[in-house]
Amino acid sequence: MSTPPAAASYHHGNLREALIEAAIDVARERGPDGLALRDLARRVGVSHNAAYRHFADRDALVDEVAGRGLAALTAAMQARLAVAERVVDPVLRARSRLAAAGHGYVDFALAEPGLFKVLFTSYPTPPDGAVGADGATEQDPFVMLNACLDDLVSVGFLAAAARVHAEITCWSTVHGFAVLHVEGPMRTASPADREAALVVTLTAIDRGYAASTGAVVAPGELFAEA
Amino acid sequence: MSTPPAAASYHHGNLREALIEAAIDVARERGPDGLALRDLARRVGVSHNAAYRHFADRDALVDEVAGRGLAALTAAMQARLAVAERVVDPVLRARSRLAAAGHGYVDFALAEPGLFKVLFTSYPTPPDGAVGADGATEQDPFVMLNACLDDLVSVGFLAAAARVHAEITCWSTVHGFAVLHVEGPMRTASPADREAALVVTLTAIDRGYAASTGAVVAPGELFAEA
DNA sequence: GGCGGCATGTGGGCGCCGTCAACATCAGGA
DNA sequence: TCCTGATGTTGACGGCGCCCACATGCCGCC
Lengths: 226, 226
What we know:
Two copies of one chain form a homodimer.
Chain A: H1 15-30, H2 37-44, H3 58-84, H4 90-111, H5 113-119, H6 141-154, H7 160-163, H8 166-182, H9 191-213
Chain A binds a DNA duplex through helix 2.
């Protein structure tokens, strides 16, 4: 649909991209288990095995979809972060950014459960992947989270001692929330309950970190401008 | 191996249980995707399709394995809880019990990654499942968690207002930690880092809840007798 | 004691799947 | 111009879940 200028017969012209796009469609509505090379080939109007000219095996295609999913997740987080950026008070802004990052993460998982599941069938190990080929720092959920936490230390809200392994704690909480609600036991919860529980959870993280420096937090201020 | 007194030929005699045991073995070493009815039938020495006399379809078998896995998870949590029970001070005991429950949860996930994954392909929705057929309260990770949290309120460590949705927060954190380390991006972390991060994470939850009542916590006391 | 019914196990088949091997088609450079 | 490499096709193999018809043997009932 996008740009098929070349193809008419034998050689498709843009098969690789066409397969990826079809795969994304399928992944969105059926998740990772619904991805089948033969099915995708059929959808694109090409014979089975054609895909093997562009992907070593099924996993390679799934990895590609996961990559696109990661970009979408990053975008969702950045959208929420942009809003939090407008808070004027530096401390409240830093706190809001952490909450926003988590909120965006869960938003994406609930809005795109299929892609979210695919994403975590082949997620890059975090210590790498944070730096692009040219050495520039890429935007990636893990580096965004770390930036938020470093910020919280800078503004004096999070004690340096409590910074250790805080990425793991935050990521665990938010990821667990997403998994439990997307494919886990909480998948039947109502959207209202879900949102309320998420606010409670993000607030709990905030309050816990406030305690690390004895910072005073007012109830409700974190989600005042949600 | 266990009790095959009957069988020699045509009728196996104990096929259902044999299939489940074989399925558990496979699940432990290959996870849910490694479970195939035909393969299991082959292992048990019976023809394909025989399994259909005991299970409606593949999912039914997986559900059965998930049930056994849930029992094992519950046992792992109870083992840790029993240790925490020995703490004399009531407040510290209640806090230790919550941490122990989480610790047991993660222990199980890391010790039995295959079963853990199977478990969450068909986990019962929590509001149900907490009460057995005879009306007695069953032991179940979710009810254990709720009991721990109620305890924390009783001893005055957790504010009643902060009790709302606290199950979700705690479960999310611990489940996310487990998932990230079992099959997620943190799967390559060293056992030492893992354990250190887990202690930090469980401590963070404790400190956050202490803040809800202004309770004073001493560093290190939670994991003194781990 | 014989017999019939029902639970249990067998064998074959269908349409999926991923993957390998051999062959067909086409575009672009020597 | 032709040939070479990239790309797409056809065919096959084994494995899967599941449906069918058929075989076997245990049980209770007359």
